[in-house]
Amino acid sequence: MIEAGLKNSTFTNKFLLNIISASELPDMPPFNKKKIIRSGFSIKLLIKLFGFSQYMLQKGAGRDDEVIKELITKFPDYHMLGGGTVDDGPNLRNYQFFNKNVMTNSVVSLGIKTNFNLDVNTTHNMKKTDINFTITKNSKDGRIIHEINGKPAATELLRLLRWPKDILNDDTWYKTTYYFPIGFHDNTSENDFGPRVIGAIYGESLVTVIGSKNRDACILTIDGRNLLKAIDDNLNTFSCKPSFGLIASCTTRLETLGDKVYQARGQVLKYFNDCPFIEFFVGGESTYSPEKGLKFVNISFNTAIFWDKNNQKSYHNEFV
Description:
By secondary structure, the chain is an alpha+beta fold. Helix content is 24%, strand content 36%. The strands form 3 sheets. Strands 1, 3, 6, 7, 16, 17, 18, 19 and 20 form a 9-stranded mixed beta sheet that branches. Strands 2, 8, 9, 10, 11, 12, 13, 14 and 15 form a 9-stranded mixed beta sheet that branches. A two-stranded antiparallel sheet has the order 4-5.
């Protein structure tokens, strides 16, 4: 549909905005919308039920990364910006919109050919701690971590972080773990770790929203100052005056920034000045360019910036 809609365009710069249904907890016993289940049920059966729900009922950890990789296969010469639709934290439901249609479990993409120059960028500004470990047992798709350093994953992670066991509850875990996500190699550099959020804990297994089979991992950390710095670090990579922009920011940034979100808004307004932009908040954020490849991480700030290097007074884009 995208290629057909743009086939008559004479412009050569291509862009794809992707909005994808993200994680949604299964509403089935024994889950009952719970993110942390430590005991009281056969954990092996629990994991099997979760896998069944994810692949057969399409309820569970989001598979946004699989969708993005498939889109890249089909549109390798496009720049892309995207994210997963989520609710305000419980991961109970999410929706996608297309014209007047309201949908679930769907992918909505906007294809653009333009005479503007454009580029995309991802920043998170997470800092690597000295806590390193090896993931010794994964699920087949790499989303569920069963063992760390040859030991049950949840208990070993708490030991490494020196956190008490009673932190594993829905009231305290997520407000804390956003500041200390798992770092994983995100396919761009062996020295670069991207943040990966733990979405649920079933028994000793850590359910993440990004699949990765790389064994090397670490704990990352961030504070409010560096969350804000990620915005300037991102926007300052673009040397040309923007004509307009799209921004995909992680919903967890809203949680962690608190009242500093107004300062973040001011930074974006200062960069764009009187130029239009749209910022939307998602989970599982991604950028792709043919030159830089795919970046798919959590807790990040992502941009698609369009500019007219010739400073033309008028511009034109074709959308589909």
